[in-house]
Design brief:
- By secondary structure, the protein is of the alpha+beta class.
- It has one domain: HIT-like (HIT family, subunit A).
- Helix content is 30%, strand content 19%.
- It is built from three helices and five strands.
- The protein has a five-stranded antiparallel beta sheet with strand order 1-2-3-5-4.
C-alpha cells in the first residue's frame, strides 16, 4: 500500500491533516520549505496529472486557492509557491501538489540545471502543435 493512500484512508495516524474534501486530503509536509507547507493529494492513487480526472484537477486547484488565502491570514505571506513533480519524477508514486507560503528573506530559491536552454519560436511552435 502507498503511504499517501494510507493518509487518505485515515489509516496512517501521524499525518497532520489541514483540509479534506470529497476528492482530496491536505496535510503538512514533513520536510517543509516554510512553516505551513502542505501537500494536497487526490484520494485516488495516480502518479501523474495526466491520469487524474478533470474534476479532481479542478478540486485540487480550488483547495490550493483556499490554502493560499489561509497563508495571507495566518502568516501575512506576500507570496506562495506551488510545485508538482509527476510521472517518473513523482518520488512517492502518488500525485501530490506542494503549496507553501513565501515569506520575505525565507531563502527559498529555484535551482536550475547548468547549461543553455533554447527559447525560440521553434520551441513555441513545437509545443503549440503538440497541444492542438
Amino acid at each position: 500500500m502507498c503511504l499517501f493512500c494510507d493518509i487518505a484512508d485515515h489509516t496512517f495516524k501521524d499525518a497532520y491533516i489541514v483540509d479534506e474534501t470529497e476528492k482530496t486530503i491536505t496535510f503538512l509536509d514533513i520536510n517543509p520549505a516554510n512553516e505551513g507547507h502542505v501537500l494536497i493529494i487526490p484520494k485516488m492513487h495516480v502518479d501523474s496529472i495526466l491520469d487524474l480526472p478533470d474534476d479532481y484537477v479542478l478540486e485540487i486547484t480550488a483547495v490550493s486557492r483556499k490554502i493560499v488565502r489561509a497563508y495571507k491570514e495566518v502568516y501575512c505571506a506576500p507570496g506562495y509557491g506551488v510545485m508538482q513533480n509527476g510521472g517518473a519524477n513523482c518520488e512517492f508514486g502518488h500525485f501530490h501538489f506542494h503549496v507553501f507560503p513565501r515569506l520575505p528573506g525565507d531563502g527559498y530559491d529555484w535551482v536550475y540545471p547548468e547549461g543553455e536552454k533554447e527559447v525560440s519560436a521553434e520551441v513555441a511552435a513545437k509545443l503549440s502543435k503538440a497541444i492542438s
